[in-house]
Amino acid sequence: FIAQSITYPLDTLRRRWQHELVQAKANLPEVDKLGILDYASKMRKEGGWRAFYGGFGLNIVKLVPELMVLCGVYHLASRSGSFV
Q1: What is the pTM of this model?
Q2: Which residue, 1, 18, 27, 46, shows the most beta carbons closer than 10 Å to its own?
Q3: What long-range pairs does 63-69 form, CB within 8 A, spacing at least 24?
Q4: Does residue 51 surpass a pLDDT of 70?
């Protein structure tokens, strides 16, 4: 949970930056010059620091069942004595 909380803003920045590059590349050939730091500044100006955590709540809700399955599979594999 802690690691995801720390890395989530960077992942959000990467995803939005890539999406904007793909969308704008057809219209503006010079869009390749928009660096990720420039886009981070643009995101912060437009949405504040909350823009970096958009969708974080839903991601945490998804994390609970994911960890339950992961722990369950680990428990079953460790009881069988065979790690494939």
Answers
A1: 0.67
A2: 18
A3: 63/1, 63/4
A4: yes
Q: d(Cα 73, Cα 81) in Å, to the nearest integer? A: 12
pLDDT tens digits for range 22-42: 777 767 665 556 788 888 998
Taking residue 43's Cβ as centre, other Cβ atoms within 10 Å add up to 20
The string of pLDDT tens digits covering residues 8-20 is: 999 999 999 988 8
DSSP string, 13-79: HHHHHHHHHHHHHTT-GGGGG--HHHHHHHHHHHH-GGGGGTTHHHHHHHHHHHHHHHHHHHHHHHH
Match 């989530």 to its residue by tokens: 8
CA 76/CA 46 separation, integer angstroms: 48
Nearest-CA neighbor of 52 among 14, 20, 24, 2? 14
SS3 78: helix
**Amino acid identity for residue 62 in this structure:** K
Residue with tokens 């620091």: 49
